[in-house]
Amino acid sequence: MEIRKRGVGAKTIHMKEKFKKIRFRTESLKLIGHCEKITQNYLQQNLRLTLRQLYYQLVTKNIIKNEERAYNNLKNLIRDARLTGMIDWDAIEDRVRVPVVPSEWNNLSELVNAALDSYRLPRWKDQPFYVELWVEKDALTGVLQPLADQFHVPLIVNHGYSSTSAMYEASKRFLERGDGKDKVLLYLGDFDPSGEDMVRDIADRMAIFDQRSSFRP
Known about the structure:
about 220 residues, alpha/beta, Rossmann fold, three-stranded parallel sheet, 7 helices, about 10% strand, globular
């Protein structure tokens, strides 16, 4: 088991752990090497990839084909590579199966320190704009979340076309927090037909819920 520190002052964490032995084919070892290089590059930036994000990285570099079979093969390969200690366990995260752990503190001092760490003034309160950042796919969450946190901007992942419930709740936020302000919705999506149409769909449905504003692509 390899134990290393990440970043200045970072706590010691288990990054690679070996649980079993597997004999990989030469082509599989080569692909694992590409995956290791990509994931380590992101870890150096304190960013973690999802398996889907790693897949897209390999596709854009023309290392594997953009097809479901290639994705499934990669999923199995990464599983085995992690179990054999070849891929960092911290390099890839599952953002869907996240445990909900109740908050707890050992004493009141810890509670006070936690409250102080989370204390933030409403940065956009006196600004002339109300801004939200929306993205079509969850694959970009790891990249966008730090930016959204830095600038105190709500981040919404639509997973394709947004639901009616989500659009209704969004309209309420824009009406309440953006009252008397210019409303800005920054949307990131694919340049395919459905991705382009989602921009139109969001503008049309937001206009239904907020008759006073002119949402437009």
